[in-house]
């Protein structure tokens, strides 16, 4: 048993107020205060009636738990809805998330999405992390309003004017916008975040305008191999079984990528497309693009291994920090073995919410003046494997 020190479980870290201000910047705000039950009158703040004056206090009350990061085994974790997400939110992990964004962009041949978008007006990114996707999509569609949510305030403050970050839990039923609000809802690498990602897909369907699109981009945690060079005792494969098992025990599975298509269809999406791509574990492939991709992924996994492992192995499997670090030495080394031709499968799935007249038994509604619907073009992306 390790002695209790600053790295032990459960310590709460409150960033200094200046770092809070830096993190909040102007772009991230909180929208997770409890939603009033329908029919409950909301009491007006009489001290704040009439038109705003320049002397009004415009500061926002930030629930302190958002910034009370939990420190555990030398890493920090989200303080809002603590314990629900098992990967850290410290600079080591946020740097890795930014790098992973570049890897996926390279893997997708510089695309940020595959859905056939046509001038979307309102876009949502669920579990945005450091917000790189939301920022790039806001630049690509400067007239769109881009919202992005996360449990952690880890987004930059200097962002395009049309992007807004919110601290919010996507597992909540109420996403604090009216139904049929968004033209495009995006999610990426949300493994281990939710008890049932199928329910999140259903909720996204509810908040999409008819004709709007949803797209999810997810990686399988288990590596694959097509030529028999990955033996069943390869340390990284064993490691992936451990974290898969730990995630199952928490009730928030990692294995969601290959189930996306079924969830989309069950939710009612049409024109559902699935694309499967491969990211090599290291630069073992001959092909130049895949070699580069493998080089990037090797660096991503090697540098992220500690953060990806720590909470699952300690909180769920009951290992000490020391045991975990000793175990990871071999796992880390195995990632770089060029003789093992392993790769991760990445699934990209997108679909369209049908118009009322396309849904059997549903009456077409007269066009609303509030929302302008954009008819999507034909889905031309084939289902492809590499
Ligand atoms: C692996 S990161 C991916 C971030 C981003 N989508 C990307 O591709 O870089 C997963 C993110 O989901 C967030 N998250 C986890 N559970 C969530 C929830 N219930 N609601 C909103 N965000 C959540 C985490 O805080 C984390 O930033």
Automatic annotation (TrEMBL):
GO molecular function list: methyltransferase activity
Matches recorded under InterPro entries: SAM-dependent_MTases_sf
Matching PANTHER family: METHYLTRANSFERASE
Record organism: Phialocephala subalpina
Designated name of the protein: Related to methyltransferase
GO BP term (any one): methylation
Domain of life, per lineage: Eukaryota
Biased composition (Polar residues): 15-35, 369-386
Keyword field: Methyltransferase, Transferase
Annotated segments matching region Disordered: 1-46, 359-386
Database matches in Gene3D superfamilies: Vaccinia Virus protein VP39 (3.40.50.150)
Pfam families per UniProt: Methyltransf_23
């Amino acid at each position: 048993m390790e002695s209790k020190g600053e790295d032990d479980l459960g310590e709460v870290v409150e960033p200094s107020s200046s770092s809070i201000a830096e993190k909040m910047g102007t772009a991230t705000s909180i929208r997770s205060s409890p939603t009033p039950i329908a029919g409950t009158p909301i009491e007006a703040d009489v001290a704040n009636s009439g038109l705003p004056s320049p002397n009004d206090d415009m500061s926002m009350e930030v629930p302190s738990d958002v910034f009370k990061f939990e420190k555990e085994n030398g890493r920090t974790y989200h303080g809002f809805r603590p314990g629900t997400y098992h990967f850290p939110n410290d600079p080591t992990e946020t740097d890795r998330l930014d790098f992973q964004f570049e890897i996926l962009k390279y893997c997708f041949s510089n695309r940020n999405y595959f859905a056939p978008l046509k001038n979307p007006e309102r876009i949502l990114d669920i579990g945005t992390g450091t917000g790189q996707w939301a920022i790039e999509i806001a630049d690509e569609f400067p007239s769109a309003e881009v919202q992005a949510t996360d449990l952690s305030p880890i987004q930059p403050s200097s962002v395009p004017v049309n992007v807004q970050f919110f601290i919010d839990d996507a597992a909540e039923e109420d996403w604090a916008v009216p139904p049929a609000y968004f033209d495009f809802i995006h999610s990426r690498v949300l493994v281990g975040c939710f008890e049932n990602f199928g329910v999140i897909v259903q909720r996204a369907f509810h908040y999409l305008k008819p004709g709007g699109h949803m797209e999810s981009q997810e990686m399988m945690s288990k590596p694959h191999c097509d030529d028999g060079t990955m033996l069943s005792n390869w340390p990284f494969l064993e490691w992936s079984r451990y974290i898969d098992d730990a995630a199952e025990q928490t009730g928030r599975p990692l294995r969601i990528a290959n189930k996306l298509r079924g969830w989309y269809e069950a939710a009612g999406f049409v024109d559902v497309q699935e694309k499967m791509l491969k990211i090599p574990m290291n630069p073992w492939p001959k092909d130049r693009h895949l070699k580069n991709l493998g080089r990037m992924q090797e660096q991503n996994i090697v540098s992220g291994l500690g953060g990806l492992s720590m909470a699952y192995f300690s909180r769920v499997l009951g290992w000490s920090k020391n045991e975990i670090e000793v175990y990871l030495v071999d796992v880390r080394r195995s990632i770089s073995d060029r003789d093992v031709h392993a790769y991760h499968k990445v699934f990209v799935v997108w679909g369209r919410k049908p118009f009322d007249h396309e849904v059997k038994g549903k009456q077409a509604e007269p066009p609303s003046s509030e929302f302008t619907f954009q008819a999507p073009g034909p889905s031309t992306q084939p289902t492809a494997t590499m």
